[in-house]
Structure formats: structure tokens, C-alpha cells
Amino acid sequence: MEGEVKGSKLEQANQVKLKKKKKKRNGDPFSGWQENLSGYLFIGPMFLGTSILVLFPIIASLVLSFTDWNFVSGFKSASFVGIENFKTLFDNDIFLKSLKNNFLILLAIPVTLMISLSIAVIINKYIYFKDLFKVIFFMPFISSVVAVAVVFRVLFHPSEGPVNQLLMSLGVNDPPGWISDVSFALPSVMIIMIWTGIGFNLIIYLAGLQNIPKELYEAAQIDGASAWYQFTKITVPLVSPTTFLLMITGIISSFKIFDLIIVLTDGGPANATITPVVYLYQQAFLELKTGYASSIALVMFIIILIITYLQFVGQKKWVNY
Amino acid sequence: MKTDIDIRKITMTVVMAIFGILFLMPFIWMISASLKIEEEVLTFPIQWIPETWNAVANYKEVWTGDMPFLLLYWNSIKVTVLTTITSVLVSGLAAYGFAKINFKGRELLFIVVLATYMIPPQTLLVTQFLLFRWLGLYDTHTGLILLNSFSVFGTFMLRQFYLGISNEIIESARMDGAGHFRIFFNIALPLVRPAIATYAILRFIWTWNDFQYPLIFLRSEALYTIQLGVQSFGDQHGSIYTLMMAASVSAIVPLLIIFIIGQKHVIEGIQLGGVKG
Questions:
Q1: Which of B85, B87, B109, B126 is the best substitution to test chain A (most A C-beta atoms within 10 A)?
Q2: What confidence tens digit (pLDDT) does each residue in A124-142 have?
Q3: Distances (CA, A) of B41 to A259, A297, B47, B50, B249
Q4: What is the pLDDT of residues A177-210, one digit of tens each?
Q5: Residues of B in contact with A50 (CB under 8 A)
Q6: What is each CA distance from A267 to A67, A279, A285, A290, in whole angstroms?
Q7: A258 and B91 in contact by Cβ < 8 A?
Q8: CATH code, B191
Q9: Does B28 share its domain with B98?
Q10: CB atoms within 10 A of CB A3
């Protein structure tokens, strides 16, 4: 291995020499500026697209968030209002409720993780037809969220939906109204989130499980450790880096849930399922408050930045072997 | 001893199979309802196999009715295929540039591109919307295609694969006088074909399922993609469950087929990137 590395370094050195020779000889096929130019040409489209679609909008929303403006009325009607938008925002009950809802939604993440890890362990070790089971549990994840929401709207129908009919036939006299009930709407959203999220988490866990040395389980088996003991003392601690990764992606993607809520409840009933993203959408595209909506975008941006920062810090402390 | 273990494994498989069927119940219910007549959809206990078949009429209404899925399909296929091709090309080029060309400022530019990955796309919607109206890209398929074509995920993932190609192959091609573009198309691209396939399938699935961009950036019904179509179909026929389910089946099934064909690629790609769409 080392020999190889040295060999390739030698070769590189040779090639550098060769390049230099060639450069001197015939005014150069690989000189600096040509290499630079082809570099910029290759990354050009990507960089241009990112600049126009991401970097510029971020700066523009920063500016817009300090204005009172409705895009229909043209640039002239925009007026600078300082931090007025942010004051209004943090006084607004609906926005505060949307933040609270988003934090409640986070409770679905540990549940998803527990179910996914259990299924991953079972698929990994205790059953036949592993690939078939992977496909089964992955299906909701790749299915269109819109169509899934449409189906659950019927399944969760308060009086005639199959879920409540089943509950009633089992003797539950007063089943919850699910998505049309103020206190059950958010849990319904979370149930669907868990259902669709299992596939993704399971697949990542399966990859994580491959990294646990088999010898550990063999040793534990020789010592007569039960399957449960192996799970809690070997699997759970050793898979913790994956758990951490999944928790972070789970938290970040919880701030992106949009399709499901728009199609399932549209933020209702009585704002029971509103989230910052849905509120942003309503303010920007239904109420046409461009400046105000930009300030929501900025607050969300900062929240995500904080979470990402915590991820860097937490990674060192939380992940242990 | 050996047979003992097998019996446990068989039992476990059976238990998981039952759990798996329960897990897929919403899909099974959806397909079953789409084949029935309206009166039988909500009967209880659930009639999994329709008593009166009405599949042809239901699907005919969905595919050729006033929100014709034929058109939605065409729009979705057009947008998804063009997005996938553009995105693979843009990401492939950038990935090669970042991995194999030594140009000034490479590290810095890569960090800038990578950093944009954390930004939640919704925070950009308002200004992107204004920008697209100004550029005349609002309510066009071109705009929609552009929105999904610049993928940091794709660039990052393909770059990892290019880093795995030894520099010697590229150096020796360059000694023979080939430029970077020829090397890219004739050597680099074929070498990372599995990675390209993985990314292409993922991009296809994500674009096909995309609802947010079409909702905000399209207005004309004639341009609607399938996800938008299912939603507005729901607004019109929300109370006719058989049609709603037939529409949902139509939106989900093509993708399931692509997934089942490319499942190995999809699962590997997801594991590699560790990200959600």
C-alpha cells in the first residue's frame, strides 16, 4: 500500500516535470490559465444556478424583511419599516402557535427512530426475504405525499372512515375525529409522518448496523446474553452515530413539512396543524404580504442555522461508543 | 440445533409478513376502493375484493375527464425527464470540476456551494417567486425545471465517486492530448455510471413527487403536473372517493414501478447520501 502511494507520488512528480518540459517546449497544453478556465466552465452552470436561485434570494429576503410591501403593487410602494415585521411576527398568535406545533411535531422523531431501529434489527438478523421487506417498508417514503394525504383524508374521516368504523366495531363508542378534531389533528399528521418516515430511517439504520463488528454479538452469545440484552447493550449504543444523524435530519426535515399539511388539513382546523412553513406560504401567496413573509423566512433560516450549529457541537458530546 | 434456529426465523418472518401487510393497508385500501362503485367504498367490514367492479369507469373518468390525467402525465413526464437530464448534467460537470480540475478558488467555491445545502428551500420561495415573475419564468415548465436542476446533493454525491477514479487515468488521457470535456464524456462519465443511475433515479422520484414548486410556480391548469392535478382533482371531486382513489393510484403506481426496478440503486443512493428529498 505504502509502496503504491510512493510510486504514484513519484509518477506525479515525473508528470509535473514532463508538464514543465512540455510547457517550455510548445507553449503549453496544460498551463494555469487553461486549467482555471476549464475549471470554471465545468462548475459554471452549477455555480450560476446556485447564485441566482439561492444566494441572491437569501440576500433579497434579508432586505425585504425590513419592508412593508405587496409584490402586486410594484417596487415603488415598498416602504422601509425597520424591525416592525419581526415585532408583529412575535406578537402574532398564529405564528407562535405554528412554532409550538413544529416543536410538538418533533415528538414524532424518537417514535419513528424506535420503530425503525427495531424493524432494522429484525430485518438484519431474524428473517428471510430481507430485500422484499426493505421494499415493503420503503414504499410509503417514495410515494407521492399528495396522494398519501388524499388517502388518509378518507381513512381518517370522522363518521364513515374505515379507521373509526373499525374502532367503533371494537367497542370504542366515541372515537376521535382525527383530522377534523382540534386536539387530534396534529397527532394525525404525526402518525402519517411516522408511517412515511420509517422507510428512510430503516434503510439508514440497516447501513449503520453493518458497521457493528459481528464478534461482539458472537462473544455475547457465548456468554449467554439474551437477544434483548444484546439489543440494549450492544446495538443501541453502537448505532448511536446513526441515531444522531437521523435525529438531525428528522428535525431539519420537520421544518420542511408542507405537502402533507397543505393537502391533509390546510393548516386547520382552527390552525391546529399550522407550521411556520405553512404560515409563510399563506402570508406570502394568499395574503400577499411580501415583506412580512420574508421576515418569517429569515426567522426560519436562523432557526435552522442554530440547529445545524447544535449539531456540530452535539456530535462530539452525544455520540459515544 | 440448526433446524431449531430456522423455525424461529420462519416464525419471525411470518410475524413480520403480517406486520408488513398491516403496514401497507392504506395502499391496499386505496387500490381496492379505486375498483369499486361509490356505494360500496365505505361499507364495513371492509370488502377488500369489490362486489361490483367499476374499475374501467372510474379510471376512464380520471384519465379523460375534466382534469385529464393523460395531460397531467404528459406534463409530469416532460418536466421530470428534462429536470433529471439537466440536473445530472449540471451536477456531473460540477462534480468533475470540483474533483479533478485544479483551478483557483476551488476549495472556497465548493464550500460556498455546500453551505447552500442547509438552507431550507421554503425560505427562498418568496424571492424566487418574485425573481421568476420578473424573468418571465413564472407559470412555465422551464421555470419549474430550473428550480430542481441545481442540486447540491447530486454534486456532492457524484464528486465522491469521481474522487474514487484514479488521477492516472485522467492524467494519461491528457498527456495524449484530450481536453477535459473529452475526458469527461468519454472516460469519466462512463466510469461513474452506477452513481449517475442512482442519482438520476432519486432525482426522478423527487421531481415526480414535487408538489411545492408546481403549487407556487404554476397557475395555468394546462401546465399542471400530476401532484398538483391530484390536489385540484380533490377540490373538485373530493366527495367521490372512488375517483379520488383512482387518481391517487395513478399518481403513485408509475413511481412504484420505477422504484421496484431500481430499488437497489435507490436504497444505496439514500444510504450514501443520508438525506431526504
A1: B126
A2: 988 989 889 999 999 998 8
A3: 26, 42, 8, 9, 15
A4: 898 888 999 999 999 999 999 998 999 899 889 8
A5: 112-113, 116, 150, 152
A6: 26, 8, 15, 20
A7: no
A8: 1.10.3720.10
A9: no
A10: 7
Residues B211 and B110 in one domain: yes
Q: Which domain holds residue B267?
A: 63-273
pLDDT in tens, A202-258: 998 998 898 888 888 889 989 888 888 999 989 999 998 889 888 888 888 888 888
Specify the number of domains making up chain A.
2
| Angle between the N-to-C axes of helices B25-34 and A145-155, in degrees from 0 to 180, rounded to the nearest 10 | 80
Which residues, numbered 176 to 215 in chain A, qualify as contacts with chain B under a Cβ-Cβ cut-off of 8 Å? 195, 200, 203-204, 206-207
Q: Does one domain contain both A138 and A256?
A: yes
Q: Does A137 touch chain B (CB under 8 A)?
A: yes
The structural domain count of chain B equals: 2
Write out the residue range of the structural domain in which residue A28 sits.
Answer: 2-84
How many residues does the structure list for chain B?
277
Give yes or no: residues B80 and B185 share one domain.
yes
| Overall size of chain A counted in residues | 321
Q: How far apart are CA B124 and CA A55, in angstroms?
A: 9
